Amino acid sequence: MININNLTVEVEGKQVLHDVNLDIPEGEVHLLLGPNGSGKTSLMMTITGYPQYEIVGGSISMMGKDLAELDITDRARLGIGMAEQRPPSIDGVKLKMLLDYLLADHPERRNEIDSLIKSTNMDSFLNRNINEGLSGGEIKKSEILLLISRQPLFAMLDEPDSGVDIDGLELLSSMINTLFSPMRDIPAKRRTGLIITHSNRMAEYIHVDKTHVMLGGELICSGNPQIIMNKIVTSGFGSCVECKRHESIS
Ligand SMILES: Nc1ncnc2c1ncn2[C@@H]1O[C@H](COP(=O)(O)OP(=O)(O)OP(=O)(O)O)[C@@H](O)[C@H]1O
């Protein structure tokens, strides 16, 4: 579904990604870990198509289509969706307006979205400006609700668990599982996705196929989610550097 080859990216003249290679097959959900400032958000912003993230080497393709040929709007039309870490509030744009817009061509999704709004206690947000005055956890719920309404083929979540309390995490995880559950039109397939997180709690609630670790703008490790997370929890990201060195020696 997503193929990233030798990707190098600059923002404001600074190289933030170096020679990144990453494949996410259709129907798989991958986690992206890494210390603060390592380039995780930059990777998602580049895939989404924010123009300040300039591809200076390599390529990204989705379903065989080179994303360099598409601007941010065309990438959204192709099926790329992202729940941002800190989405902006938009004066005059209500959550209800966005949902109505997204569901206009998909009336069959309306019942599911209405019951999700009720079960997640989001009724009171509907007539407020998007993200304005919402708590950290409420913003995350609103972002994921919009993604579920849109149903992108490839969904990226940037730290969906940050600022979410323990009870809220269970609710949010059930929303994320709804997002990635088998697709209505192709029931055998899960939605494809990439999730940035700093905690091991996500993988407890959501089935993850593979984990990647980013350090200094490079993807330095990929593999079994549980093994990688255990290693980081016990020995920190330094263990990933050691692991990479060892692998390149052997
Ligand atoms: N628009 C920008 N202008 C200047 N520097 C930027 C910009 N976007 C990202 N950077 C820099 O790129 C580096 C990587 O940032 P990025 O947000 O991708 O890291 P991250 O791994 O997502 O961090 P965190 O875990 O803290 O969210 C940082 O040094 C950041 O300051």
Automatic annotation (TrEMBL):
Report the residue ranges that make up the ABC transporter domain in this protein.
2-241
Entry GO MF terms: ATP binding; ATP hydrolysis activity
Answer yes or no on keyword Nucleotide-binding.
yes
Fetch the PROSITE patterns from UniProt. ABC_TRANSPORTER_2
Question: What Pfam families does this protein's entry cite?
Answer: ABC_tran (PF00005)
Print the keywords alphabetically: ATP-binding, Nucleotide-binding
Q: Name the family the entry cites.
A: Belongs to the ABC transporter superfamily. Ycf16 family.
Record's protein name: ABC transporter related protein
The record lists the lineage as: Bacteria, Pseudomonadati, Spirochaetota, Spirochaetia, Spirochaetales
